[in-house]
Amino acid sequence: DYNIEILKVALRNVFNIEFIQIDALERNTTSVQSLILSNIHNVQALIIQQNNHYYCLRRFRLTKDYFFKIDSKFPLYHEPIHRGHILNFLRALLANHSNIYVLVHYTSDHADDQLSIDNIETRLWPLPDAPADLECLLDLHQTQ
């Protein structure tokens, strides 16, 4: 169990990643949240906080149609969630008072570097490739 601030600082220092919290799924929230929600199909990873437990929803390069729930409570099973169902999954999390954070590549605080329609696709894929990015994970969820 970690404080979210520790995770934020660690990912900022190691991978140059910032967290953007999604606290509602209405597209008329903040302009940044609306931009992310309208591009949810481009999100690489989300951090979910349920009480004092954290887990990740992550897409991989060769399996972009699915998010996988990566949770230390279930290290041998990564629940697949089709990206077409991700908003319903997130809606259920918010209804249960979970916190949702989208990982975004941080560039700078300069106004010209803010998240925009021109840079959203690259900014929403902030993590470096992992071995799983180079594997086709289709067999894991063909029954879905």
From TrEMBL:
GO-annotated biological processes: protein deubiquitination; proteolysis
Leading EC class: hydrolase
Keywords associated with the record: Hydrolase, Protease, Ubl conjugation pathway
MF (Gene Ontology): cysteine-type deubiquitinase activity
Transmembrane segments: none
Its EC number(s): 3.4.19.12
Catalytic activity from the UniProt record: Thiol-dependent hydrolysis of ester, thioester, amide, peptide and isopeptide bonds formed by the C-terminal Gly of ubiquitin (a 76-residue protein attached to proteins as an intracellular targeting signal)
Domain annotation Josephin: ranges: 2-103
Name of this protein: ubiquitinyl hydrolase 1
